[in-house]
Amino acid sequence: MHTTENYNGQVTGQYGIHGFWESRLPELFYDDYDLFAPNIYFVESKRDFIWDIVEQSHYALDSVLTFEKNLSSEFPEDKKMSFEERGTMIMEVYSKEFSTEYHDRLDGMVERRFRSAIHSLGCLWYTCWVEAGQPELDPLIPENLLPPLIEKRDSIDSESHPRRK
Hints:
Layout: H1 17-29, H2 46-59, H3 61-74, H4 77-80, E1 81-86, E2 89-94, H5 96-106, H6 109-131, H7 146-156
């Protein structure tokens, strides 16, 4: 949604679709997502890597908008929205029924984009760490997190890594 002037459905009469896709759907379905990402790797061209992500995200735009528009035309208007308590406020939100049907039509898109974001960010962090000379991170890590990260760091530090100095 961040790659278009219609980022929140204001051009197509779908106002609120941005928050629907990136907040409401994950709120409802996050527990079912498998967010285990593939192994990270060194990114040779960060600019190309990032623009590939932007392009992949933009290609999903037509499905995000079209599926919601089609479902809205098929769904009973009085069942599309509902009210939920959020803290001390009552908020109007997309109903669970409408959200479930829309999520099903997206066929795992939100989960895939979340997993891709996790993987991409990991690759970029790893690349920056390698380019910074692989500085020691242990002093920055709280004691209770140190043992698992030492094991992971040792597996990343293998001599077979192409950028290893």
